[in-house]
Amino acid sequence: MNKFLVTVAAVALSGIGGASSAWAQASSANPNDMVRTAVETVVKGVKADAAAKTGDVTATARVVTRDFLPYADFHRTTRYAVGPKVFDAATPAQQQQVFEQFQQLLVNTFALQLSQVRGNDIAFKFDPAKLTANSSDVVVGATVSGTGDNLSVAYRLAKTDKGWKIYDINMMGENVANAWLIQLYQPQFKARIAQGGIDSLIAYLREKNDRFGK
Known about the structure:
Strand order of the largest sheet: 1-2-3-4
Oligomer: single chain
Structural class: alpha+beta
Strand content: 15-25%
Number of helices: 8
Shape: globular
Order of helices and strands: HHHHHHHEEEEH
Distance between the termini: 24 Å
Radius of gyration: 17 Å
Helix content: 55-70%
């Protein structure tokens, strides 16, 4: 499957000054608008960056950080992937380190894939969530289309005090129950924590980030 399509779908798994205003508008809107804005902003950001559009992974990571993170709640993602009880039992310093390292790993992964296939024309079709007055956790579906390839994806969002935030992604579409990002990382994290506690997980994540771009 086209790696670029996988990544674009995921990052929707944070441009220039326009990104801040776009996020401000989307954060006060419904989750369907949030997903649409997130996807379009990160793709435009990569295309507008001279280095990123040539495949520079470090430059692409900067774009992903700038243009995707305002739409995401990776702290929630981290807590759920580690396990709420284990995460809450860690010291504040450990919590911050595992969050920062995991968030950076996600950014680096998205950036690496984005840099590999950068010349495709991308089209999006969104499957909006059905909202009620009490909705606080919803799934927005989408189809990402490129040259000879289509990808069904789903984005899970929670309503926070800062508006709707993306915190989980399913790159197989919402009908595939076991492909959510949090579920994919949970067994890896559990194994590392069993070996040496939360510090072992932090070291594991840091090592993977240190290898980025090498």
